Amino acid sequence: MTSPAMGKVLSRRKFFANGIMAVIGVFAAGLGIPLAGFAISPITKKGEETWISIADVDQLKDGEPLQVAYSYTRKDGWRTVEANKTAFILRKADGTPIVLSNICTHLGCAVAWDAPAKQFVCPCHGGAFDAEGKVTGGPPPKPLPQLVAKVEQNKIYVREA
Ligand code: FES
């Protein structure tokens, strides 16, 4: 049988035990949440954008896409990856350069410029694109991807993330 005084002592102990657990919980959350955030941040973080110089404007010829290969370093989750890409730069009728990916939109083969036919051709399934990347034949469902580009001080840059 418990006396009213003993019940009071037990509930005080329980109160302090609960208080200590609450303090430990707050410290654990204070440490655990930032640690968990640090651990998963590479997954949720978007890669930093980088502008890469790929050519000089003077290298462009009218009606003839310039093929360029470039590489850059990017973060992929916890890894640092060296990416190598190829693109085509051409001058539009108004003089502004556009940069096209060389990756076919059908199944990802590398397209090449066919100078006599004045079109990009895909060797895998016969896809064809005009000089501005629009589909002119074969199975590709979309035009060649256009990369985000800018011109500064006579240099052409593409943006990569
Ligand atoms: S991958 Fe280019 S046409 Fe199929």
Automatic annotation (TrEMBL):
<protein>
    <submittedName>
        <fullName>Cytochrome b6-f complex iron-sulfur subunit</fullName>
    </submittedName>
</protein>
<dbReference type="InterPro" id="IPR014349">
    <property type="entry name" value="Rieske_Fe-S_prot"/>
</dbReference>
<keyword id="KW-0408">Iron</keyword>
<dbReference type="Pfam" id="PF00355">
    <property type="entry name" value="Rieske"/>
</dbReference>
<dbReference type="InterPro" id="IPR005805">
    <property type="entry name" value="Rieske_Fe-S_prot_C"/>
</dbReference>
<dbReference type="InterPro" id="IPR017941">
    <property type="entry name" value="Rieske_2Fe-2S"/>
</dbReference>
<feature type="domain" description="Rieske">
    <location>
        <begin position="65"/>
        <end position="158"/>
    </location>
</feature>
<dbReference type="InterPro" id="IPR036922">
    <property type="entry name" value="Rieske_2Fe-2S_sf"/>
</dbReference>
<keyword id="KW-1015">Disulfide bond</keyword>
<keyword id="KW-0411">Iron-sulfur</keyword>
<feature type="transmembrane region" description="Helical">
    <location>
        <begin position="20"/>
        <end position="40"/>
    </location>
</feature>
<keyword id="KW-0479">Metal-binding</keyword>
<keyword id="KW-0472">Membrane</keyword>
<keyword id="KW-1133">Transmembrane helix</keyword>
<keyword id="KW-0001">2Fe-2S</keyword>
<keyword id="KW-0812">Transmembrane</keyword>
